[in-house]
Design a protein that fits this description.
By secondary structure, this protein is mainly alpha-helical. The chain is built from 4 helices and no strands.
């Protein structure tokens, strides 16, 4: 078979899209129990990472998270913004 590259899509965007699709297929094959185990391990690692932070690092993380949250909210459509209220 011969595949032509979609010239409208940047290589990095294509790689990101294909990775997202591959992960979605992988997740669909997993059982809920194994997904729960994976999430539990991830949460424990994140908690250990947070507990190891210095107060300055913790403050910087909170500021980054708040800024990211604000940007995400700003990108909402009017319908999405209305649904949040």
């Amino acid at each position: 078979m011969f595949f032509t590259m979609n010239t409208d899509e940047e290589p990095i965007a294509k790689r990101r899209r294909m990775t997202k699709e591959r992960k979605a297929r992988w997740l669909a094959r997993q059982s809920q129990e194994s997904l729960d185990r994976i999430r539990a391990v991830d949460v424990a690692a994140y908690r250990r990472h947070i507990e190891a932070e210095t107060p300055a690092q913790s403050q910087a993380r909170r500021e980054r998270d708040a800024a990211a949250h604000s940007r995400r909210i700003e990108r909402h459509t009017p319908d999405q913004a209305e649904a949040r209220r």
